[in-house]
């Protein structure tokens, strides 16, 4: 697979007050691929994920040094956070539909961006729900509350909501950890399908999941990237003993 850089991360450090949560991260993240971040709880996976759409800007006392570029543009120096977040969407661990109808959830972003014509919104809502592989399950209840469906369906509605603003990148923070195995497989299939058009970065505690769906895997430990390589390489021939211990469950 061709590696075409989407993000380039240079000497990235992040502090929450005096606590250093990310230590000198250097890596390239590639277009049209799924990259998985794995590692034990508290090692900085979510923190790093959130630096990619500047969600940490919202946390008080955060200090960041180094830089991240997207398509060559520095996302901290040369781009405002709002623009960045329309280009880099995020799906969270707990499905978080807004307390409104399924239709209004998906139309929310486009409306904020000034789209109000019903026929255009109808089209965006249908297309996004189809892309998120949930259209057939909800097409007859678009006006019903998005909270009145299963957790797995809610998560796909949230993915549709993210897709509706046509981002280039989707960040997923443990998107299946609150879901049953069938819904999990649906989201995994969906991620694999979406990577044709999007760059996807996923934090997961599920090693099988990383192995099943990702092209690249980064193993994090106490704020550092210990090893980053093709997923096959990481899982079959890890170079670092710590990576090997973690993926074989001998970590501790
Ligand atoms: N807002 C915050 N203020 C202070 N410390 C924080 C904050 N958020 C995270 N941390 C700390 O930073 C470290 C990294 O946390 P982070 O959530 O990135 O880890 P993680 O690898 O995603 O963990 P998990 O797998 O449990 O979600 C942890 O020690 C955590 O306690």
Automatic annotation (TrEMBL):
<dbReference type="GO" id="GO:0016887">
    <property type="term" value="F:ATP hydrolysis activity"/>
</dbReference>
<keyword id="KW-0547">Nucleotide-binding</keyword>
<keyword id="KW-0472">Membrane</keyword>
<dbReference type="InterPro" id="IPR027417">
    <property type="entry name" value="P-loop_NTPase"/>
</dbReference>
<dbReference type="GO" id="GO:0005315">
    <property type="term" value="F:phosphate transmembrane transporter activity"/>
</dbReference>
<dbReference type="InterPro" id="IPR005670">
    <property type="entry name" value="PstB-like"/>
</dbReference>
<keyword id="KW-0067">ATP-binding</keyword>
<keyword id="KW-1278">Translocase</keyword>
<dbReference type="Pfam" id="PF00005">
    <property type="entry name" value="ABC_tran"/>
</dbReference>
<comment type="function">
    <text>Part of the ABC transporter complex PstSACB involved in phosphate import. Responsible for energy coupling to the transport system.</text>
</comment>
<keyword id="KW-1003">Cell membrane</keyword>
<dbReference type="InterPro" id="IPR003439">
    <property type="entry name" value="ABC_transporter-like_ATP-bd"/>
</dbReference>
<keyword id="KW-0813">Transport</keyword>
<dbReference type="GO" id="GO:0005524">
    <property type="term" value="F:ATP binding"/>
</dbReference>
<keyword id="KW-0592">Phosphate transport</keyword>
<dbReference type="InterPro" id="IPR003593">
    <property type="entry name" value="AAA+_ATPase"/>
</dbReference>
<protein>
    <submittedName>
        <fullName>Phosphate ABC transporter ATP-binding protein, PhoT family</fullName>
    </submittedName>
</protein>
<dbReference type="InterPro" id="IPR017871">
    <property type="entry name" value="ABC_transporter-like_CS"/>
</dbReference>
<dbReference type="GO" id="GO:0005886">
    <property type="term" value="C:plasma membrane"/>
</dbReference>
<feature type="domain" description="ABC transporter">
    <location>
        <begin position="7"/>
        <end position="247"/>
    </location>
</feature>
<dbReference type="GO" id="GO:0035435">
    <property type="term" value="P:phosphate ion transmembrane transport"/>
</dbReference>
């Amino acid at each position: 697979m061709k590696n075409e850089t989407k993000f380039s991360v240079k000497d990235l450090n992040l502090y929450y007050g005096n606590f250093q949560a990310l230590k000198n991260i250097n890596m390239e993240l590639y277009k049209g691929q799924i990259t998985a971040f794995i590692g034990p709880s508290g090692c900085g996976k979510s923190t790093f994920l959130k630096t990619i759409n500047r969600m940490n800007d919202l946390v008080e006392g955060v200090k960041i040094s180094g830089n991240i570029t997207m398509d060559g543009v520095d996302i901290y120096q040369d781009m405002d956070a709002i623009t960045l977040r329309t280009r880099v969407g995020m799906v969270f661990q707990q499905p978080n539909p807004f307390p409104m109808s399924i239709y209004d959830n998906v139309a929310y972003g486009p409306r904020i961006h000034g789209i109000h014509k019903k026929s255009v919104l109808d089209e965006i809502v249908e297309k996004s729900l189809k892309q998120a592989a949930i259209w057939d399950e909800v097409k007859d209840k678009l006006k019903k509350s998005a909270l009145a469906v299963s957790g797995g369906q809610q998560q796909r509605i949230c993915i549709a909501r993210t897709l509706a603003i046509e981002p280039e990148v989707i960040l997923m923070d443990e998107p299946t950890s609150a879901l049953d195995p069938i819904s999990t497989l649906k989201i995994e299939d969906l991620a694999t399908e979406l990577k044709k058009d999007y760059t996807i970065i996923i934090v997961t505690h599920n090693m099988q999941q990383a192995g099943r769906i990702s092209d690249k895997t980064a193993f994090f430990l106490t704020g550092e990237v210990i090893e980053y390589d093709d997923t096959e390489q990481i899982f079959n021939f890890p170079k670092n003993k710590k990576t090997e211990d973690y993926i074989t469950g001998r970590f501790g």
